[in-house]
Amino acid sequence: MTALGRQLKLLEERAKAKVPGLDRVEAIREANKRLSENQRLQATTVSQWFAKDRVPKDFPPLWELVKVLLEMTEGEKEQPWWNARRASWHELWEEAARHRSPKEPAPSNPPVISLPAEAEGFVGRERAVGKVLAALDERRTVVLTGMPGVGKTALALRVAHEALRSGRFPGGALFADLDGYAAAPGSALEGLLWPLGVCDLPSGEAARAATFRSTLAERSDALLIVVDNVASAAALESLLTGLGDHRVTCASRRTPSRPAA
Question: How far is it, in rounded angstroms, from Cα 78 to Cα 71?
Fold first, then answer.
């Protein structure tokens, strides 16, 4: 652990002693009120600052979190030594960044997997599985269409499990079911954000979609997202990643009315 991480843990412990029941998510939520949208903190990222050798890319988001904890600890929002405190934390941040070897890439996130099990008795569709895998190599989104009962979901899950076995998606695979066309995309996003470690869920579909994209942007290893029972392109849009090497496979009774990728 870096000196920065140790000091963060000590500060958090002092804040918890002053504010019984305080958790890190609450402190992050307060810090995010002061940050612009592109600087917002995620619980998983902040936890890596505390526990690993990860170093914040920029100082301002780190300082806003530190300020929240300092305010909880000291009991005042304005202190005569505020600038001195900021300077000392800036030094800790610079030291941590300086001592992380540039030859060593930041450690990868552990894979996240929330897939249902493969359907039993799924045989004789190796060609279909191969075609979908090949399509995922070329496109961000692959749509499987067909009448109810033809095996769209079983095919999507077989493809996902086979892709994991072959190492195509080292970041893992997530599953969202739009629940027979009844579930709102915001609910599906909640089921995708929890496995990614996002505990402080924003309200509203647009805010959750933005959080989903920003969380995926922090993950360097490719993820596959499987979405079942998609009624329309509109229902799928907020679940699309549009980022890096992440991919989406969806199952629908018909091709979405407007392009989904």
Answer: 8
